[in-house]
Amino acid sequence: MVFLPDESRSLPPPPLLNKGSVWLGFAGWMSALLNNAFNQRPVLRAGVHRQILFATLGWFVGYQLVKRAEYMHAKVDRELFEYIRHHPVDFHAAAEKKRIGQLLEDFRPIR
């Protein structure tokens, strides 16, 4: 599958109720309600099966988009950590940490 490669199966699945699935599920339900309103049907009572279908489709698309986003973030993290592991000279640990007072200049009022 091009959308999610097989290596994404090693990642834990996102929660069923996440931000993307809830928002797109709500958007699907609202699109069914708007369709009823534009066609001059009772908004909430007509086409309940269509409302459930659109909300389910929106939830599924949102869930898959969150899965893809998590895979892409994990891929970038893996590449960055691999780069850091191969180039340790560029990412040496600081010997001593400077305090904020050492970084800022002394305050001298102008007037």
UniProtKB/TrEMBL annotation:
The keyword Cytoplasm does not apply. Belongs to the complex I NDUFC2 subunit family. One of its GO terms (biological process) is mitochondrial electron transport, NADH to ubiquinone. It comes from Corvus moneduloides (New Caledonian crow). It is a single-pass membrane protein. This is NADH dehydrogenase [ubiquinone] 1 subunit C2. InterPro entries: NDUC2. It comes from the Eukaryota. It is found in: Mitochondrion inner membrane. The keyword Lipid biosynthesis does not apply. Pfam families: NDUF_C2. GO terms for cellular component: mitochondrial inner membrane. PANTHER family: NADH DEHYDROGENASE [UBIQUINONE] 1 SUBUNIT C2-RELATED, NADH-UBIQUINONE OXIDOREDUCTASE SUBUNIT B14.5B. Keywords: Electron transport, Membrane, Mitochondrion, Mitochondrion inner membrane, Respiratory chain, Transmembrane, Transmembrane helix, Transport. Accessory subunit of the mitochondrial membrane respiratory chain NADH dehydrogenase (Complex I), that is believed not to be involved in catalysis. Complex I functions in the transfer of electrons from NADH to the respiratory chain. The immediate electron acceptor for the enzyme is believed to be ubiquinone.
